[in-house]
Amino acid sequence: MAVNPTEAFELLFTREQIVERIKQIAEQVDQDFHGSRLVVVGVLKGAFLFAADLIRELTTETEIDFIWLSSYGTERFSAGEIRVQKDLELPIRGRDVLVVEDIVDTGLSLKFLKQHLMLREPARLAFAGLVDKKAARMTEVSIDYVGFEVAQGFLVGYGMDDAGLYRGLPEIYRLPPIADK
Ligand code: IMP
Ligand code: MG
After folding, report:
1. How far apart are alpha carbons 49 and 54 in whole angstroms?
2. Which atom of ligand 1 is found nearest the CA of 111?
3. Would you give per-residue pLDDT tens digits along the chain (181 residues)?
4. Cα(102) to centroid(ligand 2), Å
């Protein structure tokens, strides 16, 4: 690995762009959930930074909770069986809930989450995805708040990892194709 691992990575979104986009999303959420006491659900691990930055931009009152999914598949492709590794602690029946994801790829995790959480009969269930990789979709899902659309590739940084690494990078990068690694 190079001394600076990001040298070989393609910078897609700077810290400033991410901050600005999250402010815009927060404005929309504030409009849509005005007067609510919103349960923000961060999907671990990837969404922990997005969730943290988003709740600090919201004027809507929030409670934060986390859910941790595991899926079995290859390292960069997760279209396997999805399980709940760690479930919510807060009850959400009758509550307004915003699920916060780092990236929506095949859409299978989001679809699973929707089914899983709807069983608890929240008043409203909305989804925010910082990155939308629409072209990779294997199932149709609707995302209420999208940060950025990216056509292809595997992304790291700002919470997103490759085999556990790079979550702490403040920017979002695209990795070179796997054959070049
Ligand atoms: P999906 O179920 O295929 O939509 O994938 C959802 C999860 O896979 C995301 O929440 C990420 O944790 C992970 N994932 C998908 N694509 C990427 C990527 O490009 N970089 C890092 N993680 C990814
Ligand atoms: Mg994830």
Report:
1. 8
2. 2
3. 444 677 899 999 999 999 999 999 999 999 999 999 999 999 999 999 999 999 999 999 999 999 999 877 665 666 678 999 999 999 999 999 999 999 999 999 999 999 999 999 999 999 999 999 999 999 999 999 999 999 999 999 999 999 999 999 999 999 998 754 4
4. 6
Residues annotated catalytic, as ranges? 105
CA of 45 to the centre of ligand 1 (A): 11
Render 63-117 in DSSP notation, one character per residue: EEEEEEEEE-SBTTB--S-EEEEE--SS--TT-EEEEEEEEESSSHHHHHHHHHH
Q: Report whether residue 147 contacts ligand 1, using a CB cutoff of 6 Å.
A: no
* Per-residue tokens: 44: 């671990």
Rounded Cα–Cα distance for residues 119 and 114 (Å): 9
